[in-house]
Amino acid sequence: SKSHSFWPFSQYVANLKQEHASSLRKALTMKPLNCTQHPDQRINLWCAVCEVVVCVECVLLQHRDHAVIQVDAGVFVQQTNEIRTLLESLSERQETLRTAIQSVAAVTDDLDRAADTVAQAADTAIDTAIQALEARRRALKTSISAIHFEKRRTLDAQNTYLSGCLARFSTGVDFGQRLLEQEDMPRVLQLKKMVDLSLSETNRCVDVNMWLPHQDAVIEFHDIGVQPVVDAALGVGLVSGEKLRERAYVPKWDASRRGNDIVLINNDARCYRVDKRGWGGVLGAQVMSAGKYHFTVQLENVAQNTLIGVAYTDVNLNEGAQRRNVVLRENGEFWVFGEKMGSFVHAQFESGDTIRIEVDMDEKEVIFRKNGAKLCGASNLMFNTRPFVALGNADALVSLL
């Protein structure tokens, strides 16, 4: 509150030590020999019940039924031994407190360092993203400038040509109008043929193809990929006061993000197709943005063109392997963002197989496992990710566990 004073803990401890030492010095130097209640009486008796030194009158008045003995060496040794025992206990507790204080101080230092380190890491991550966006901004503006310059150069040249033609027309028309204003008929008739030839020649010199602009005013910006970047920006980084644990997972397919002929059953945990033509895909309901996840895909019935893996939220659900997904095919082919990375015989699917897929969004990587053994993996997961299955056949049946 406003009326209270606040001290650092270290100052509080120092003050306690100073006050204790001062009280102890006073106790040792005062040496009270007479009773405080009866000043004319010396205190030379020990009350074992109250554990105090008293005088004769105190015994008669306040300690009448107590066990009282004369203060001697035996009493002194006994009581000082008890003090020593208590001091040993306090010394042990004192060391425990010192150790506790050191532990708290060490954690405090580690916490301060961790906060600085994490803040720097966050700055680095965001600065890297900003630098990439700024580089893209510069590239887009360079493209805009190049298109603008090329179109403007063509239009400026056309404008110069047409302006020259207009000047010739204006000169000829002006001369003809002045000629008509002349009253000397022989002179007008003499110059008429020359003016007629000049105007006709000027008209023929104009290229009819130059009447319309040779360029349009179109410079358009298409915000391709902007929304995924915005979505990803909202999921960049995660600050937590505890160690990240593996996230809880929702074993369902998303009924709102599936191909037209994808059918979901068993509480949206199982999917299949009704059309053999083309591709049909479906995304999992779980959005993986930060932390670690794992899910298991059970291949209840395997058919040709069965793909399982992960995909970005804007993946095309009517295509197979593409630039927005990382998938493993039933024949062992591994596709990473539309590029075939290899074919693994041990990764081929059979009906009844279960494939465990582990996703670490902090490390931006995904790993495929079969029977506990690692099959393959990929990195550079740039945006929020979901489980993904694409079926190119009506015979496949896939469940999300």
Verbal overview:
It contains 5 helices and 17 strands. With 401 residues, it is of the alpha+beta class. The strands form 3 sheets. Strands 4-7-16-9-10-11-12 form a 7-stranded antiparallel sheet, with no helix packed on it. A 7-stranded antiparallel sheet has the order 5-6-17-8-13-14-15, with no helix packed on it. A hairpin with a 3-residue loop joins strand 10 and strand 11. Helix 3 packs antiparallel against helix 4. The longest helix has 108 residues.
Write the layout of secondary structure elements.
Blueprint: H1 9-30, E1 45-47, E2 52-54, H2 56-61, E3 68-70, H3 73-180, H4 185-205, H5 226-234, E4 253-258, E5 262-265, E6 270-273, E7 280-284, E8 292-301, E9 306-312, E10 325-329, E11 333-336, E12 339-343, E13 354-360, E14 365-370, E15 373-379, E16 385-391, E17 397-400
Antiparallel strand pairs: 1-2, 1-3, 4-7, 5-6, 6-17, 7-16, 8-13, 8-17, 9-10, 9-16, 10-11, 11-12, 13-14, 14-15
Helix pairs in contact: 3-4
Keywords for this entry:
single chain, about 400 residues, alpha+beta, 7-stranded antiparallel sheet, about 40% helix
State the gist of this model.
The protein is an alpha+beta fold. It has five helices and 17 strands. Helix 3 (73-180) runs antiparallel to helix 4.
Distance between the termini: 57 Å
Q: Please, what is the oligomeric state?
A: single chain
Q: What fraction strand?
A: 15-25%
The average pLDDT is: 81
Number of strands: 17
How does the major sheet shape up?
7 strands, antiparallel
The level of helicity is 40-55%
Strand order of the largest sheet: 4-7-16-9-10-11-12
- Summed up, the helix count is 5
Order of helices and strands: HEEHEHHHEEEEEEEEEEEEEE
The unreliable regions are none
Shape: elongated
SS-derived structural category: alpha+beta
Q: Report Rg.
A: 47 Å
